[in-house]
Specification:
- With 323 residues, the chain is an alpha+beta fold.
- Helices cover 21% and strands 33% of the residues.
- The chain has six helices and 19 strands.
Protein backbone atom coordinates (compact mmCIF):
# COMPACT_ATOMS: atom_id res chain seq x y z
CA UNK A 1 0.00 0.00 0.00
CA UNK A 2 1.23 3.45 -0.94
CA UNK A 3 0.37 6.81 0.52
CA UNK A 4 0.06 9.54 -2.14
CA UNK A 5 0.91 13.13 -1.26
CA UNK A 6 -0.13 15.83 -3.74
CA UNK A 7 1.75 19.11 -4.21
CA UNK A 8 0.00 21.72 -6.35
CA UNK A 9 0.74 25.16 -7.72
CA UNK A 10 -1.78 27.64 -9.13
CA UNK A 11 -1.46 31.16 -10.54
CA UNK A 12 -4.95 32.35 -9.65
CA UNK A 13 -5.00 35.49 -11.87
CA UNK A 14 -5.27 38.56 -9.67
CA UNK A 15 -7.14 37.35 -6.60
CA UNK A 16 -7.78 40.80 -5.12
CA UNK A 17 -10.24 41.81 -2.43
CA UNK A 18 -12.52 44.79 -3.13
CA UNK A 19 -10.85 47.19 -0.67
CA UNK A 20 -8.58 49.96 -1.97
CA UNK A 21 -5.10 49.57 -0.48
CA UNK A 22 -3.49 53.02 -0.47
CA UNK A 23 0.01 51.49 -0.48
CA UNK A 24 -0.35 49.57 -3.76
CA UNK A 25 -1.67 50.11 -7.29
CA UNK A 26 -4.83 48.07 -6.79
CA UNK A 27 -7.28 50.88 -7.62
CA UNK A 28 -8.54 49.31 -10.87
CA UNK A 29 -9.53 46.16 -8.97
CA UNK A 30 -12.06 47.85 -6.73
CA UNK A 31 -15.83 48.38 -7.26
CA UNK A 32 -15.19 51.86 -8.74
CA UNK A 33 -12.08 50.84 -10.67
CA UNK A 34 -11.80 50.06 -14.38
CA UNK A 35 -12.39 46.34 -13.74
CA UNK A 36 -15.53 46.99 -11.63
CA UNK A 37 -14.32 44.42 -9.10
CA UNK A 38 -17.44 44.03 -6.95
CA UNK A 39 -18.09 41.85 -3.90
CA UNK A 40 -20.27 39.59 -6.03
CA UNK A 41 -17.43 39.02 -8.50
CA UNK A 42 -14.96 38.50 -5.67
CA UNK A 43 -17.16 35.90 -3.98
CA UNK A 44 -17.59 34.07 -7.29
CA UNK A 45 -13.81 34.04 -7.76
CA UNK A 46 -13.27 32.64 -4.25
CA UNK A 47 -15.86 29.94 -4.97
CA UNK A 48 -14.20 29.12 -8.29
CA UNK A 49 -10.62 28.92 -7.00
CA UNK A 50 -11.57 26.93 -3.89
CA UNK A 51 -13.40 24.43 -6.09
CA UNK A 52 -10.32 23.95 -8.27
CA UNK A 53 -8.02 23.55 -5.27
CA UNK A 54 -10.36 20.97 -3.73
CA UNK A 55 -10.20 18.84 -6.89
CA UNK A 56 -6.53 18.86 -7.98
CA UNK A 57 -5.26 15.29 -7.80
CA UNK A 58 -8.43 14.05 -6.12
CA UNK A 59 -9.04 11.34 -8.70
CA UNK A 60 -5.75 9.72 -7.67
CA UNK A 61 -5.25 10.65 -4.02
CA UNK A 62 -8.98 10.77 -3.05
CA UNK A 63 -8.36 14.15 -1.40
CA UNK A 64 -7.28 17.73 -2.07
CA UNK A 65 -3.54 18.60 -2.21
CA UNK A 66 -1.42 18.43 0.93
CA UNK A 67 0.72 21.41 -0.15
CA UNK A 68 -0.46 24.27 -2.39
CA UNK A 69 1.71 27.07 -3.74
CA UNK A 70 -0.19 30.14 -4.95
CA UNK A 71 0.67 33.34 -6.76
CA UNK A 72 -1.19 36.53 -7.73
CA UNK A 73 -2.94 36.79 -4.38
CA UNK A 74 -3.31 40.25 -2.86
CA UNK A 75 -3.01 39.60 0.87
CA UNK A 76 -3.60 37.21 3.74
CA UNK A 77 -7.30 38.12 3.94
CA UNK A 78 -8.08 36.59 0.52
CA UNK A 79 -6.26 33.40 1.59
CA UNK A 80 -8.35 33.20 4.74
CA UNK A 81 -11.53 33.63 2.67
CA UNK A 82 -10.29 30.87 0.37
CA UNK A 83 -9.62 28.27 3.07
CA UNK A 84 -12.85 29.16 4.92
CA UNK A 85 -15.00 28.58 1.82
CA UNK A 86 -17.21 25.46 2.13
CA UNK A 87 -15.19 23.81 -0.67
CA UNK A 88 -12.10 23.79 1.57
CA UNK A 89 -13.35 24.47 5.08
CA UNK A 90 -13.16 20.87 6.31
CA UNK A 91 -9.63 20.35 4.92
CA UNK A 92 -8.01 22.29 7.79
CA UNK A 93 -5.45 24.26 5.77
CA UNK A 94 -2.87 26.52 7.32
CA UNK A 95 -1.51 29.66 5.61
CA UNK A 96 2.04 30.98 5.23
CA UNK A 97 2.24 34.39 3.59
CA UNK A 98 4.38 37.53 3.57
CA UNK A 99 3.59 40.84 1.89
CA UNK A 100 5.84 41.34 -1.15
CA UNK A 101 6.98 44.77 -2.35
CA UNK A 102 5.42 44.15 -5.80
CA UNK A 103 4.00 47.43 -7.10
CA UNK A 104 0.57 45.90 -7.80
CA UNK A 105 0.54 44.28 -4.38
CA UNK A 106 0.46 40.65 -5.55
CA UNK A 107 2.19 38.00 -3.45
CA UNK A 108 3.04 34.31 -3.28
CA UNK A 109 1.81 32.03 -0.51
CA UNK A 110 1.75 28.45 0.72
CA UNK A 111 -1.27 26.52 1.97
CA UNK A 112 -0.68 23.28 3.83
CA UNK A 113 -2.86 20.60 5.37
CA UNK A 114 -2.16 20.65 9.09
CA UNK A 115 -2.73 16.89 9.22
CA UNK A 116 0.06 16.28 6.66
CA UNK A 117 2.69 18.94 7.16
CA UNK A 118 4.24 20.67 10.17
CA UNK A 119 6.07 23.91 9.22
CA UNK A 120 9.18 24.59 11.29
CA UNK A 121 10.67 27.58 9.43
CA UNK A 122 9.60 30.14 6.86
CA UNK A 123 11.31 33.08 5.25
CA UNK A 124 10.62 35.54 2.45
CA UNK A 125 13.63 36.27 0.19
CA UNK A 126 13.68 39.60 -1.64
CA UNK A 127 14.57 39.74 -5.33
CA UNK A 128 16.36 43.03 -6.01
CA UNK A 129 15.98 44.31 -9.58
CA UNK A 130 17.03 47.66 -11.07
CA UNK A 131 16.31 49.34 -14.40
CA UNK A 132 18.82 51.07 -16.74
CA UNK A 133 18.63 54.21 -14.59
CA UNK A 134 19.44 52.21 -11.43
CA UNK A 135 15.88 52.69 -10.21
CA UNK A 136 14.52 49.81 -8.14
CA UNK A 137 11.93 47.59 -9.88
CA UNK A 138 9.67 46.04 -7.28
CA UNK A 139 8.69 42.41 -7.74
CA UNK A 140 7.59 39.34 -5.83
CA UNK A 141 9.62 37.71 -3.05
CA UNK A 142 10.52 34.02 -3.09
CA UNK A 143 8.93 32.16 -0.18
CA UNK A 144 10.80 29.30 1.53
CA UNK A 145 8.99 27.01 3.97
CA UNK A 146 10.75 24.20 5.83
CA UNK A 147 8.97 21.52 7.78
CA UNK A 148 8.08 17.88 8.29
CA UNK A 149 5.98 15.85 5.85
CA UNK A 150 5.31 12.34 7.18
CA UNK A 151 8.39 12.46 9.44
CA UNK A 152 10.65 13.63 6.60
CA UNK A 153 12.29 17.06 6.40
CA UNK A 154 11.12 19.06 3.37
CA UNK A 155 11.64 22.54 1.97
CA UNK A 156 9.13 24.16 -0.38
CA UNK A 157 10.03 27.26 -2.40
CA UNK A 158 7.20 29.27 -4.00
CA UNK A 159 8.09 31.51 -6.95
CA UNK A 160 6.53 34.07 -9.25
CA UNK A 161 9.39 35.25 -11.43
CA UNK A 162 9.38 38.58 -13.33
CA UNK A 163 7.05 38.77 -16.33
CA UNK A 164 7.88 39.00 -20.03
CA UNK A 165 6.56 42.55 -20.22
CA UNK A 166 8.54 44.39 -22.89
CA UNK A 167 9.44 41.14 -24.64
CA UNK A 168 11.00 37.80 -23.66
CA UNK A 169 14.60 38.71 -24.54
CA UNK A 170 14.55 42.21 -23.04
CA UNK A 171 13.09 40.91 -19.75
CA UNK A 172 15.24 37.74 -19.68
CA UNK A 173 17.95 39.18 -17.34
CA UNK A 174 15.29 39.64 -14.63
CA UNK A 175 14.40 35.94 -14.73
CA UNK A 176 18.06 34.99 -14.76
CA UNK A 177 18.41 36.98 -11.52
CA UNK A 178 15.35 35.23 -10.11
CA UNK A 179 16.92 31.86 -10.96
CA UNK A 180 20.19 32.93 -9.33
CA UNK A 181 18.30 33.88 -6.15
CA UNK A 182 16.57 30.48 -6.23
CA UNK A 183 19.96 28.77 -6.62
CA UNK A 184 21.39 30.74 -3.66
CA UNK A 185 18.42 29.68 -1.52
CA UNK A 186 18.89 26.03 -2.52
CA UNK A 187 22.66 26.22 -1.88
CA UNK A 188 22.06 27.66 1.59
CA UNK A 189 19.56 24.90 2.43
CA UNK A 190 21.95 22.20 1.22
CA UNK A 191 24.83 23.77 3.17
CA UNK A 192 22.79 23.20 6.34
CA UNK A 193 21.50 19.78 5.26
CA UNK A 194 23.11 18.16 2.20
CA UNK A 195 20.28 15.60 2.05
CA UNK A 196 17.38 18.09 2.29
CA UNK A 197 14.35 17.26 0.17
CA UNK A 198 13.53 20.37 -1.85
CA UNK A 199 10.56 21.19 -4.09
CA UNK A 200 10.71 24.53 -5.92
CA UNK A 201 7.50 25.53 -7.72
CA UNK A 202 5.90 28.51 -9.36
CA UNK A 203 5.01 30.61 -12.35
CA UNK A 204 8.52 31.13 -13.70
CA UNK A 205 7.48 33.09 -16.81
CA UNK A 206 9.97 30.84 -18.61
CA UNK A 207 9.58 27.45 -20.22
CA UNK A 208 11.45 24.33 -19.02
CA UNK A 209 14.12 24.63 -21.74
CA UNK A 210 14.95 28.30 -21.11
CA UNK A 211 18.35 29.43 -19.83
CA UNK A 212 17.12 30.32 -16.33
CA UNK A 213 16.40 26.63 -15.73
CA UNK A 214 18.87 24.81 -17.96
CA UNK A 215 21.94 27.03 -17.51
CA UNK A 216 21.49 28.64 -14.08
CA UNK A 217 19.68 25.92 -12.13
CA UNK A 218 20.96 23.13 -14.42
CA UNK A 219 17.69 21.21 -14.23
CA UNK A 220 17.48 17.77 -15.84
CA UNK A 221 14.54 16.64 -17.95
CA UNK A 222 15.21 12.89 -17.76
CA UNK A 223 15.24 10.81 -14.58
CA UNK A 224 18.31 8.86 -15.72
CA UNK A 225 20.30 12.14 -15.91
CA UNK A 226 19.61 13.00 -12.26
CA UNK A 227 22.24 12.55 -9.57
CA UNK A 228 22.25 13.51 -5.90
CA UNK A 229 23.38 17.07 -6.67
CA UNK A 230 21.07 17.89 -9.58
CA UNK A 231 17.43 18.91 -9.84
CA UNK A 232 14.79 17.10 -11.88
CA UNK A 233 12.17 19.07 -13.83
CA UNK A 234 9.24 16.74 -14.63
CA UNK A 235 7.59 19.50 -16.69
CA UNK A 236 10.29 19.35 -19.38
CA UNK A 237 8.96 16.07 -20.80
CA UNK A 238 5.42 17.48 -20.85
CA UNK A 239 6.62 20.63 -22.59
CA UNK A 240 8.32 18.59 -25.31
CA UNK A 241 4.97 16.87 -25.90
CA UNK A 242 3.29 20.26 -26.42
CA UNK A 243 1.53 20.40 -23.04
CA UNK A 244 1.02 23.93 -21.67
CA UNK A 245 -0.41 25.73 -18.66
CA UNK A 246 -1.20 28.99 -20.48
CA UNK A 247 -1.65 30.16 -24.06
CA UNK A 248 -0.74 33.43 -25.74
CA UNK A 249 -1.03 34.33 -29.42
CA UNK A 250 -1.63 30.74 -30.53
CA UNK A 251 1.37 29.44 -28.59
CA UNK A 252 1.26 27.24 -25.51
CA UNK A 253 3.77 27.86 -22.72
CA UNK A 254 4.50 25.81 -19.64
CA UNK A 255 5.54 28.57 -17.24
CA UNK A 256 4.03 26.76 -14.22
CA UNK A 257 6.62 24.26 -13.08
CA UNK A 258 8.19 22.13 -10.37
CA UNK A 259 11.82 21.18 -10.03
CA UNK A 260 12.85 18.78 -7.29
CA UNK A 261 16.04 17.61 -5.58
CA UNK A 262 17.59 14.39 -6.86
CA UNK A 263 16.98 12.55 -3.57
CA UNK A 264 13.26 12.50 -4.44
CA UNK A 265 14.07 10.22 -7.39
CA UNK A 266 14.24 7.38 -4.94
CA UNK A 267 13.95 3.61 -5.46
CA UNK A 268 13.45 3.23 -1.70
CA UNK A 269 9.68 3.62 -1.45
CA UNK A 270 9.86 3.70 2.35
CA UNK A 271 10.84 7.33 1.81
CA UNK A 272 8.95 9.91 -0.25
CA UNK A 273 9.73 9.53 -3.93
CA UNK A 274 8.56 11.26 -7.09
CA UNK A 275 5.80 9.47 -8.98
CA UNK A 276 4.44 11.79 -11.67
CA UNK A 277 3.43 15.37 -12.50
CA UNK A 278 0.87 16.99 -14.74
CA UNK A 279 -1.29 19.94 -15.70
CA UNK A 280 -4.79 19.97 -14.19
CA UNK A 281 -7.12 21.02 -17.02
CA UNK A 282 -10.64 19.59 -16.70
CA UNK A 283 -13.24 20.87 -19.23
CA UNK A 284 -14.71 23.47 -16.86
CA UNK A 285 -11.32 25.26 -16.69
CA UNK A 286 -11.23 25.67 -20.48
CA UNK A 287 -12.84 28.32 -22.68
CA UNK A 288 -15.76 26.53 -24.34
CA UNK A 289 -16.10 28.42 -27.64
CA UNK A 290 -14.72 31.15 -29.87
CA UNK A 291 -11.21 31.67 -31.15
CA UNK A 292 -9.74 30.93 -27.71
CA UNK A 293 -11.43 27.53 -27.38
CA UNK A 294 -9.49 25.20 -25.01
CA UNK A 295 -7.44 28.11 -23.61
CA UNK A 296 -7.74 28.67 -19.83
CA UNK A 297 -11.14 30.17 -18.95
CA UNK A 298 -10.10 33.53 -17.52
CA UNK A 299 -11.76 35.91 -15.06
CA UNK A 300 -11.09 38.80 -17.43
CA UNK A 301 -10.27 38.73 -21.14
CA UNK A 302 -9.32 41.87 -23.05
CA UNK A 303 -10.38 43.97 -20.07
CA UNK A 304 -13.92 42.51 -20.04
CA UNK A 305 -15.30 40.36 -17.24
CA UNK A 306 -15.83 36.76 -18.38
CA UNK A 307 -16.45 35.15 -14.98
CA UNK A 308 -13.93 32.34 -15.43
CA UNK A 309 -11.21 30.94 -13.19
CA UNK A 310 -7.69 31.98 -14.21
CA UNK A 311 -5.50 32.60 -17.24
CA UNK A 312 -3.34 29.65 -16.11
CA UNK A 313 -4.07 25.98 -15.48
CA UNK A 314 -2.79 24.63 -12.16
CA UNK A 315 -0.04 22.01 -12.05
CA UNK A 316 0.49 19.12 -9.66
CA UNK A 317 3.08 16.59 -8.55
CA UNK A 318 2.56 13.27 -6.75
CA UNK A 319 4.90 11.79 -4.16
CA UNK A 320 4.63 8.13 -3.13
CA UNK A 321 5.55 6.46 0.14
CA UNK A 322 4.97 2.93 1.39
CA UNK A 323 2.52 2.78 4.28
Amino acid sequence: MYKVRTIAFYNVENLFDTINDTLTFDDERTPNGSYHWTLERYNKKISHISKVLSEIGKETSKSSPDIIGLCEIENRAVLEDLIQHPNLQNKNYGVIHFDSPDARGIDVALLFKKASFLPTSFKSHRLLLFDDMSERKYTRDQLVVGGVLDKEEFYFIVNHWPSRRGGASKSKPNRIRAALLNKRIIDSIQALDWNAKIVSMGDLNDDPRDDSLKKVLKTKGKIQQVDSLSFFNPMEKLYKKGVGSLAYRDKWNLFDQFFISGNLINPNKQLHSYWKAGVFAPPYLKTAKGKFTSYPFRTYAGGSYTGGYSDHFPVYLFLLKEE
